[in-house]
Design brief:
The chain is of the alpha/beta class and 235 residues long. Helices cover 36% and strands 27% of the residues.
Length: 235
């Protein structure tokens, strides 16, 4: 029996799950906005309590490593590293974009995951169905929504678009002819976190906690603002 704690904090929703042998036993989803640090640990405690499993019985931790919200990613990845190190168990880093795509991939469609990156940009990637879950069809990237919508339009109705970035720019993506998933596909799901984490644990050795790093794809808003201020007003 394999017990897995999985969570993702890359979006405005903190998703936490405890799974047994790849099946979610307890799940929590909290709309956290900018309070990831305050919401994550209580959500983990609630999940483990509902699942009836003590932390020292966990076999591994899986965490979404982004791309996504900078503060949320730091909270999630740091918490996963500290817990895994303290418990002496492996930690598995999962792409948040892949987790988003996982429930929707199928042989007859390509899934495009889109996460709001703010600053008129989105994080995105394309996925096809693979034997153990979504397989990247293109590298993860950050781009203006219109550029992503143009790429989606080239694939037509066989493409599915998921993620909060797609919903924020609904008009753009609805005009592509692709299937635009509803709010249920806006954030990483607990079932996908558990399934992908367990599958990864079964086929590949998990990395050490110290080697786990968030995937940002671009500088933080604070760094961008500082650089703009340092350059001074444009002329």
């Amino acid at each position: 029996m394999t017990w897995l704690l999985a969570f993702d904090t890359a979006t405005d929703v903190v998703t936490v799950a405890v799974g047994r042998d790849g099946v979610p036993v307890a799940t929590v989803a909290v709309d956290s906005a900018r309070t990831h640090a305050e919401q994550l640990v209580p959500a983990v405690h609630r999940c483990t309590t509902e699942a009836g499993v003590a932390l020292d019985r966990l076999d591994a931790i899986a965490v979404g490593v982004g791309p996504g919200r900078f503060t949320g990613l730091r909270v999630g990845v740091t918490t996963a590293k500290v817990m895994a190190d303290a418990l002496g168990i492996p930690v598995i880093g999962l792409s948040t974009l892949a987790v988003l795509a996982a429930p929707w991939v199928a042989p007859d469609r390509e899934v495009v995951s889109v996460i709001d990156a703010r600053r008129r940009e989105v994080y995105w990637a394309r996925y096809r169905a693979g034997p153990a879950g979504p397989v990247p069809a293109a590298p993860e990237a950050v781009a203006p929504p219109a550029e992503v919508a143009a790429a989606v339009a080239e694939r037509g109705p066989s493409a599915w678009v998921v993620g909060d970035g797609a919903l924020r720019h609904r008009d753009l993506f609805a005009a592509t002819g692709a299937h635009l998933a509803d709010a249920a596909a806006a954030v990483p799901g607990a079932g996908a976190l558990v399934a992908l984490g367990t599958a990864r644990l079964a086929v590949a050795p998990a990395g050490s906690a110290r080697a786990l790093v968030p995937v940002y794809l671009r500088e933080s808003d604070a760094a961008i603002n500082w650089e703009q201020a340092a350059r001074g007003p444009s002329t």
